[in-house]
Amino acid sequence: MPTFGGRLRASMLAAGLTETESLAKRVGVSAQVVRKWLRSEKPALSAENIVSLSEVLNVRVLWLANGRGPIHSFTVKEYTEPELISAFRTLGAKEKILVRDFIGLLMRYQDS
Length: 112
Hints:
64% helix; 7 helices; 0% strand; mainly alpha; 434 Repressor (Amino-terminal Domain)
């Protein structure tokens, strides 16, 4: 959909939200602001608003904001620790280094 308003309207319908007041309440803005968004006017359309809208409507932020990428996020499979270890053992040396470095980076940010 070419416009923000069109993407917002389609997302609302897909989520079963037909009333601007209902969406406004869930996002924390006035119904008037939602009506302006539906007309592709963007008053008070902050990053926080886009994130809230995408969460309420279950669509990707990037798609809602500018129409890029898939509409919905992909579901990520939850792996057990033994499955991860088994998968790690099948990797080549270079891939194992990448995984090790990535885990080290995650651990560094976890401590912050």
